[in-house]
Design goal:
Elements lengths: L1 H15 L1 E3 H8 L3 H13 L3 E4 L2 E4 L9 H4 L4 H11 L8 E4 L3 H8 L8 E4 L2 H6 L6 E4 L3 E3 L4 E3 L1 H7 L4 E6 L3 E3 L3 E4 L2 H12 L1 E7 L11 E4 L6 E5 L4 H7 L4 E5 L6
Parallel strand pairs: 4-5, 4-9, 5-6, 9-12, 12-14, 14-15
Antiparallel strand pairs: 1-3, 2-3, 7-8, 10-11, 11-13
Helix pairs in contact: 5-6
């Protein structure tokens, strides 16, 4: 019965995170067309997200977490991403660092630089570079308590008046159709202005951010130059992303 099949499909997704049509055909002893109809129904009822040749669970919208909550999660992956990111930074360049724990890891690797300028809306990044020779420009604006991000009209006004060589964009959620999204309108507005102020934008995000959606759209995937992420990204997700932008994967922990 269709209801029983769909329950089995959802059970497998809960256990494995993803499913393949070919595997379901063999396990449930039905045609590929029947499985596709089941997946279409589950996607229409917003329980799954269909992928090339299969499906993944449709997860709830990502909401904002405090810095203390995010700190320590996937640190090995974030450090590996940061190490790759700094290789794109040339001497005498001006870079823009988005607020976040991955971009903070980038800042930690810039302490020995003497010829670059860093613009940021993150007070923790600014503090990290306090006792260095790096020229630091803080955007100003209202402080988001427990997060460390600066936002609001003053931040937006400052960003509208600058132009930088390179922007490292952090993300709360990344999805093939929804693009890069953020949990608040204010955060999305800041990120959009940062992209507009930059010659080139690299998205820096660990693989836990993919196949997720948050409340407000920042940009489509084809609006940014490239992505640096870790090897835990699903193969089908990486293949899809390569249609829109350059994807660089780095080692960071063992691939699951």
């Amino acid at each position: 019965m269709p209801k029983e099949r769909r329950e089995q499909i959802l059970q497998q997704l809960n256990e494995n995170g993803k499913i393949e049509i070919e595997d379901l055909v063999n396990e449930l002893n039905v045609s590929a067309m029947t499985i596709r109809r089941d997946l279409a129904f589950l996607e229409e009822t917003e329980q799954i997200i269909r992928t090339h040749g299969g499906a993944i669970l449709n997860k709830p919208l990502v909401v904002e977490s405090s810095f203390r909550t995010k700190e320590g999660k996937f640190n090995d992956r974030k450090r590996a991403i940061a190490e790759r990111a700094v290789q794109f930074i040339q001497d005498h360049s001006t870079i823009l660092l988005d607020s976040g724990t991955t971009t903070l890891e980038i800042a930690k690797l810039l302490k020995e630089k003497t010829t670059i300028t860093v613009v940021t809306n993150d007070i923790k990044i600014a503090a990290e570079l306090l006792d260095t020779d790096v020229k630091v420009i803080v955007t100003g604006g209202e402080l988001q308590n427990t997060i460390g991000t600066l936002f609001g009209p003053l931040t937006e006004q400052m960003l509208k008046g600058i132009h930088v060589d390179l922007f490292f964009l952090g993300a709360h959620a990344i999805h093939s159709r929804a693009g890069v999204t953020a949990p608040t309108y204010e955060k999305a507005a800041i990120k959009k202005l940062m992209i507009e102020a930059s010659e080139k934008t690299w998205l820096v995000a660990d693989s836990s951010k993919f196949d997720q959606k948050s409340l407000t759209k920042v940009c489509d995937l084809n609006q940014i130059h490239g992505l640096i992420t870790d090897l835990h990204i699903l193969d089908e997700t990486e293949k899809m992303l390569n249609e829109y932008l350059e994807v660089v994967t780095v080692e960071g922990g063992e691939k699951g």
